Amino acid sequence: MTNDNMPLFLANSRFGWSKPARIEEFNKLQSINSKATTRIVFQGKNVDIPIIRIPIELPKYRMANGRTASLQAEHLAKHPNIRADMFSGDSELWDAQETQHNLLLQLAKQSDLQKYFEETCNIQVDPLLLDEKGFVVNGNRRLSVWRELLFQIPDKYSHFRYIDVAILPHSNEKEIDRLEATLQIEKDIKADYSWDAQANMMLAKQKRDGFSNKELAELYSMKESEVKELMDMLNYADEYLTSRNKKNLWSQVSDHEFAFKRMVASRPKISGVGSQEIFTQAAFTLIEKPEEAGGRLYDAIPAIVESLDIVKDKLQEEFQVSPIQTDHSVDDLFGEVCEEIDLPLALEIQKPENIDKARKIIVEVIESQKQLKKDAKSANYLLDCCARAQAQLSAAVQDGLRPESKLQGVSYQLDQIQIQVDKIRYFLSQHVKN
C-alpha cells in the first residue's frame, strides 16, 4: 500500500529508482552547493563536477558497458528463452538491471574486487560517474559489489547505504564512449578485459555509434592495424564457436587469444581459397583440444601452414573426398577460384564425426615434420660448427694480425684447434667413401 509521502521508486528496489524519481532527486541535490568536486576530461576540456551523496538504490547500470559485452552475448546464448533485447532494449526494466548486476558481480569476483570490499576498512574513495539520467558510466562493478554486500549483510556493510556520485553534463553516447575509453586507458585496458571482451566492446561501439577502426584506434591509443587484427581475431573466434554450435559462448575462447592472433597472421601466407579454408578448419580442430597439440597453439598453428600440402595429402588419404565440379568459365573470368578438392576436404574435416580423426592426422604431420627438422639440424651440426669455426678464424686473420694484438696464449689455442681438426679428419677418413 502506498501513500502520498512515499518516493516515486519502489521501497524494495535494489536496481535503480524510476526515471522521474532519479531526475527529481538529482535536481534537488544539485541545487545545494557542494564543496567537493571531481575533475575529468570530458567533451574536450577539463570539467569540475560536484560530488553528491545518494542512496545506493538510486542509480541504474549502463547496459552498454564494455566489460560485459562478451558476457551479455554469452548469457543470451545460454538462456534462449529470455527476451532477445534484454541488453539492447529498455534499460529501465528490472530483469535487465538484475541480469546486468549478476554479470558485473561475476567480473568483480574474477578481479578480486568483491574480496577487496568485503574488508570493512575498504570504503568508497572515488565517486561513481553517472549520466544525467542516472545510468552509471564509470563504477558499475563497484556498485554491484556494494549493493550485494549491503543486501547480504546490511548491518556489517551499512556504510554503503549512501554513495558518492558525480553527474556528467548533458552528452551523447559517442561522448560517453570517449570518456569510458579514456578512463579505461588510464587503468590499462588489458588488465581488466579479456581480448574477446575488448573486441566485442569495440564492435558494439562501431554498430551503435558508428566508430571507424581509425577512430577506435585513436580512442584506445592503439594502432589502426591493431584494431583490425583484433576484429579479425573476433571473426575467427565467432566462426569457430558457430562451427561447434557454441555461438557467443565467448568464455570458451578467452584463453586462446594467441591462437587466433596466429591465425590472423598466418592465413594471408596461404594462396587459394580452398587451402585457406583447410588451414582454418585444421586450426579449429587444434583449438578445440589444445592439449592434443602439445598445448602450444602459438607454435602449432603456424606449423600447419608450413606443412599444409602434407596435411592436405594425409587428410585426403584418410577421407577420400570427391572433387567438386567447377565452372571453368568462372575460372577464366576470375582466375582459379579454389583447388577442386580443397573445399570438399575442408567441409569433411569439420564434420563432428571426423574432427577427432582429422586432429590426430594434423598433429602427427606437425610432429613428424618437427622431427625431420631436428634430424636435419643434427645431420648438419658438424658442418655448421666447422663453418662457424672457419668464419671465426677468417675474422682473426683479417682483423687480428696486428702488431698491437695480444700474442700470449695464441699458440696454445692453435695447438688445441689442430688437435680437434685432426680428430675430425680422422673421423672423415673412416666414414667418407671415395
Short note summarizing the structure:
The chain is an alpha/beta fold. The chain has helices at residues 19-30, 69-78, 94-110, 113-118, 140-152, 173-186, 189-192, 195-209, 213-219, 224-243, 257-266, 273-288, 297-306, 308-319, 328-334, 342-349, 355-379, 381-400, 410-431; strands at residues 37-42, 45-55, 60-61, 128-130, 135-138, 162-167. The chain folds into four domains: 1-171, no CATH class; 173-239, no CATH class; 253-367, no CATH class; 381-431.
Q: List the domain count as a whole number.
A: 4
> Can you tell me the overall shape?
elongated
Low-confidence stretches: 1-12, 333-338
Ends apart, CA distance between termini: 109 Å
Percent range for β-strand residues: 5-15%
Q: Roughly what percent helix?
A: 55-70%
Strand order of the largest sheet: 1-2-6-4-5-3
What does this structure look like?
- The chain has 434 residues and is α/β, with parallel strands linked by helices.
- It folds into four domains: 1-171, no CATH class; 173-239, no CATH class; 253-367, no CATH class; 381-431.
- The chain is built from 19 helices and six strands.
- It has helices at 19-30, 69-78, 94-110, 113-118, 140-152, 173-186, 189-192, 195-209, 213-219, 224-243, 257-266, 273-288, 297-306, 308-319, 328-334, 342-349, 355-379, 381-400, 410-431, and strands spanning 37-42, 45-55, 60-61, 128-130, 135-138, 162-167.
- The protein has a six-stranded mixed beta sheet with strand order 1-2-6-4-5-3.
- Strand 1 and strand 2 form a beta hairpin.
- Helix 11 (257-266) runs parallel beside helix 13 (297-306) and helix 12 (273-288) runs antiparallel to helix 13.
- The model is unreliable at 1-12 and 333-338 (pLDDT under 50).
